[in-house]
Amino acid sequence: KAIITKAIPTILLALLICTATALASVQISEVYHDPIGTESGGEFVELFNPTPLPINITGWKLATKSSVKDATIPEALIQPYSYYLITDANWQESKDNASWPAADHEEAITLVAANAGVLLLHNNNIIDAVGWGTTDLAEGTPLTPPPEGLSMQRTQDTGNNSADFII
Fold first, then answer.
1. What is the pTM of this model?
2. Residues 79 and 51 sit within 8 Å (Cβ to Cβ)
C-alpha cells in the first residue's frame, strides 16, 4: 500500500506532462487563405493532432492579422491522428470544390492574402503559427504567399514555416 501511495504523485505528474505535451503538439496542418473568386466563405484552417491522445480544443482561438480572436472553437475534441477543419462562414455554399469535407466549425474568419498569418492560441499561448509574405505572425521564416486557389500544407514541423510547408 505504501508503494502505491508513493507512486500516485509520480503517475499524476507523468499524466500532466503527457497532457501538456499533447496540447503543444496540435499543428496548423493546412491554410487556404485566398480562394478562387470569393473572399467570403471559401477560406479554411485545418488543425491536426499528431499524438495518440485525444485533445480538447474547446475555447482555443485563431488569431489573424485582422483580429486577435478571429475564430473561437466551441466544445471540441481532436481525436488521435485526426484533423479538425475551421472554415469561413458559408463554407458549404462557397468552397471552391464541392467534394471538400464539411466544416467541423464554421465562423466568419478573415485571412488576408498578403503579408499575414494565423496563430493557434490556447489560453493566450501560441501553440502554432503560419505566416506568409512579410509578417511577424510566423514560425521562423514566413512562406512566399501562394497564388490564388492554392493552399499551404504542412509536411513537417521544424519550427520554420518556409521549411515546413509546401504550396
1. 0.85
2. no
CA–CA separation, 41 vs 94, rounded Å? 5
- 61-64/71-72 β-pairing: antiparallel
Does residue 128 contact residue 24 with C-beta atoms inside 8 Å? no
101, 102, 108, 114: CA torsion to nearest 10: 0
**Continuous segment of H or E residues that includes residue 45:** strand 44-48
**CA nearest to 49, candidates 162, 165, 157:** 157
- Give me the amino acid identity at 133: G
Round the CA-based radius of gyration of the chain to a whole number and report it.
Answer: 18
Please say if the pLDDT value at position 22 is more than 60: no
Break the chain down into helix, strand, coil percent, rounded to 5: 20, 30, 50
Q: What is the pLDDT of residue 76?
A: 97
Residue with cell 503579408: 115
Residue 6 predicted with pLDDT over 70? no
In the predicted model, is pLDDT for residue 144 greater than 50? yes
